[in-house]
Amino acid sequence: MFIRRTTPYNIDRFFNEWNNAINTTNNKGFALDVHENDDAFTIQAEVPGIDADNINIRLHEDTLTIEVENSYENREERGDAILQERRYGSFSRSLRFPVHVNSDNVSADYTDGVLTITVPKAEEVKPRRIEINRA
């Protein structure tokens, strides 16, 4: 015989809210996608609502760091928060590339809340086609 045990609604709600709070605080601040091809790495970061002047990108010793500042202004004018899911403050993500990259030719574009950074690989790590000498 199978007996199904249920928990009261308030306990379920408590654990769901607690789990959501943990997941929110463990969030790195913004989502990243990283793609690689033979010539470069492409990084896309979701940073909607952030002014481009509040985004700082650095590349040092094959480590890319993206820093974002999201300030919360006019808090007093808006009143007390009843629900606040948007995050404010400084967030950063760092990526260490597995190969040397060309820091002189990095480019960045920001369109519709998506930051796209292209980081070319150093010439010495790109695949090369080896010509065969014919006798």
Write the layout of secondary structure elements.
Layout: H1 9-26, E1 32-36, E2 40-46, E3 55-60, E4 63-70, H2 75-78, E5 89-96, E6 107-111, E7 114-120
Antiparallel strand pairs: 1-2, 2-7, 3-4, 4-5, 6-7
Structural features, described:
By secondary structure, the chain is of the alpha+beta class. It contains two helices and seven strands. The strands form two sheets. The protein has a four-stranded antiparallel β-sheet with strand order 1-2-7-6, with no helix packed on it. The chain has a three-stranded antiparallel β-sheet with strand order 3-4-5, with no helix packed on it. The protein is elongated, with a radius of gyration of 23 Å. The termini are far apart. Mean pLDDT is 81; it is low at 21-26.
Keywords:
135 residues, alpha+beta, four-stranded antiparallel sheet, three-stranded antiparallel sheet, 2 helices, 7 strands
Adjacency order of strands in the biggest sheet: 1-2-7-6
Instruction: Give the uncertain stretches in residue-range form.
Output: 21-26
Strand content: 25-35%
Number of strands: 7
Classification by helices and strands:
alpha+beta
Q: Which H/E pattern describes the elements?
A: HEEEEHEEE
Q: Please bin the fraction of helical residues.
A: 10-25%
The profile of the biggest β sheet is: 4 strands, antiparallel
Distance between the ends: 82 Å
Mean model confidence by pLDDT: 81
Compute the number of helices.
2
User: For the CA atoms, what is the radius of gyration?
Assistant: 23 Å
Overall spatial form:
elongated
